[in-house]
Amino acid sequence: MEKLTIGQATMTWLNGGITHLDGGAMFGVVPKPLWTKKYPCNEHNQIPLRTDPILYC
């Protein structure tokens, strides 16, 4: 976990795992051959995305 403290406030990044979302919905009008170079998709056209929530205290 990474932490950042500013004054009395502390932000902590938590590990939220990975979720899979539809690549076409994420990139809209960008053609699939372009975005699959950076984000390869599975057989369901889904790309893996990290979900790292931030805890603010």
TrEMBL record:
Classification via Gene3D superfamilies? Ribonuclease Z/Hydroxyacylglutathione hydrolase-like
State the superkingdom. Answer: Bacteria
**Protein name as it appears in the record:** Metallo-beta-lactamase family protein
Q: Which organism is it from?
A: Anoxybacillus flavithermus
The organism's taxonomy opens as: Bacteria, Bacillati, Bacillota, Bacilli, Bacillales
